[in-house]
Backbone:
């Protein structure tokens, strides 16, 4: 078996394992929708979404770029053994502990201002304390689980994430339904479950943990690599959440609630993307330093774009049915943005292809610059489209901005490490998928019937699937299958 085939086999195996696990993890959040949409009003859902957005911003600062830093240096120190890798993991944890304490303290000082600006002074300080603390424990849990992902141990990784997700749901539901804690119960449940998951995760990963001293020799190097990623993390936050800020400013909590529910249905695509990213991340870094790496990037990139767009078109077709089954009638209009916002997830996942040349050259500042350009574009588009088109304008602005981000990243990455992606195929796949999404939503605008949208969906799937596998790779794969079945080495 060739080195490329071995890596593709590893990617396929890990993708299946992570896929099953991610379905379980994300399905917890998805299946909370019918409960939360019946317990909370549309406005309440908007408040929950806004608290989550603020917590995400705090998480970006608390991470200080250490997630990507740990991944990069963990593989760089691979040849030096477990002791060297343990110093990386321990140093990152120590930095995160200090950053978490400082960030939460500063955020609590600012909490009265946040309460006044976004919630009309209607929340007590306990909401912010619990939400911010939960955000830190979630990040710390993620670091421990990430170590197992880097070690190609998906079951350990999934065990930790499942404990956190399922624990959060169970505790939150008890607090909400039994003890009538309402919105506060959502975040208290997350905090309780994340504390337990953090302890469990670090007990499992203790072989890669050395807390007997401060690893001062690594701090400067890690921070030098991660510092540009702080700015990029902030830019990514703006790029991913500015739609919520503009909806809150120019619309109201009800529309933000609809947008939040529509985005929750988009988690079905985000689930597939995150599954792929989780499996592809370590494999792709290994591939950067192998002879067959460029070919692997071309094959996987082309297939990823095709399959991602097929998923978006299917979700767009099913969105009215899914929303009507799972959520109450007052949330039905959220179906309009489900397929549109799902494009954002596909483009977000492709960033792992677009930025690799930048990573290989260790020119991380280009990643930051690209994110700032894309986030600035998103702010501009949101300011133009949200006041006039509401949640649909926000969804389109976010997806377009992530597309532009990928275009910029590819141009820069190809300069440092030319892969030779099939750009015309990418363009054709996106054009067909976007046209199908628009046509399906237009058909639903006239009448909610499924025959014509389903026909458009099927034709789109056939067209994009035909472009998703490189012909030369398909030919080689077919030859290998025939050779294996016939035992004929001359095929």
Residues:
């Amino acid at each position: 078996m060739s080195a490329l085939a071995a890596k593709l086999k590893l990617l396929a195996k890990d993708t299946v394992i992570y896929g099953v696990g991610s379905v379980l993890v994300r399905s917890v959040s998805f299946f909370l929708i019918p409960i939360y949409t019946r317990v909370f009003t549309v406005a309440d859902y908007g408040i929950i979404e806004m608290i989550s957005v603020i917590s995400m911003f705090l998480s970006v600062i608390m991470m200080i770029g250490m997630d990507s830093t740990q991944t990069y240096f963990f593989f760089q120190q691979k040849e030096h053994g477990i002791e060297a890798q343990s110093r990386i993991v321990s140093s990152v944890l120590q930095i995160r502990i200090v950053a978490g304490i400082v960030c939460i303290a500063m955020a609590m000082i600012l909490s009265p201002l946040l309460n006044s600006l976004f919630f009309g002074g209607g929340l007590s300080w306990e909401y912010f304390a619990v939400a911010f603390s939960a955000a830190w424990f979630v990040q710390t849990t993620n670091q421990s689980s990430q170590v197992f992902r880097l070690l190609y141990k998906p079951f350990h990784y999934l065990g930790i994430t499942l404990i956190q997700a399922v624990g959060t749901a169970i505790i939150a539901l008890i607090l909400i339904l039994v003890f009538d804690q309402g919105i506060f119960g959502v975040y208290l449940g997350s905090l309780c479950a994340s504390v337990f998951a953090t302890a469990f995760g670090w007990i499992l990963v203790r072989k890669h943990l050395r807390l007997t001293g401060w690893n001062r020799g690594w701090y400067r190097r890690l921070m030098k690599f991660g510092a540009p990623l702080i700015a990029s993390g902030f830019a990514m936050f703006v790029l991913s959440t500015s739609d919520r800020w503009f909806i809150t400013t120019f619309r109201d909590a009800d529309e933000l609630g609809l947008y939040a529910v529509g985005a929750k249905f988009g988690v079905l695509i985000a689930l597939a993307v995150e599954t792929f990213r989780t499996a592809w991340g370590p494999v792709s870094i290994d591939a950067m330093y192998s002879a067959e790496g460029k070919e692997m990037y071309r094959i996987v990139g082309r297939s990823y774009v095709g399959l991602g767009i097929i998923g978006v078109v299917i979700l767009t077709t099913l969105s009215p049915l899914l929303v009507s089954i799972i959520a109450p009638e007052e949330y039905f209009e959220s179906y309009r943005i489900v397929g549109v916002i799902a494009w954002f997830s596909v483009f977000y996942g492709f960033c792992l292809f677009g930025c690799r040349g930048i990573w290989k050259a260790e020119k991380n500042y280009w990643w930051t610059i690209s994110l700032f350009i894309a986030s600035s574009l998103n702010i501009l588009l949101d300011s133009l489209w949200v006041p006039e088109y509401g949640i649909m304008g926000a969804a389109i602005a976010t997806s377009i901005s992530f597309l532009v981000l990928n275009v910029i990243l590819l141009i820069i990455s190809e300069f440092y490490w030319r892969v030779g992606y099939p750009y015309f195929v990418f363009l054709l796949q996106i054009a067909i998928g976007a046209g199908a999404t628009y046509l399906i939503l237009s058909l639903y605008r006239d009448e909610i019937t499924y025959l014509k949208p389903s026909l458009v969906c099927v034709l789109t799937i056939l067209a994009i699937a035909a472009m998703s596998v490189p012909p030369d790779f398909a030919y080689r794969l077919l030859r290998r299958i025939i050779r294996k079945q016939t035992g004929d080495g001359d095929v």
About this structure: The CA atoms of residues 8 and 68 lie 23 Å apart. The chain has 18 helices and no strands. The two ends are 17 Å apart (CA to CA).
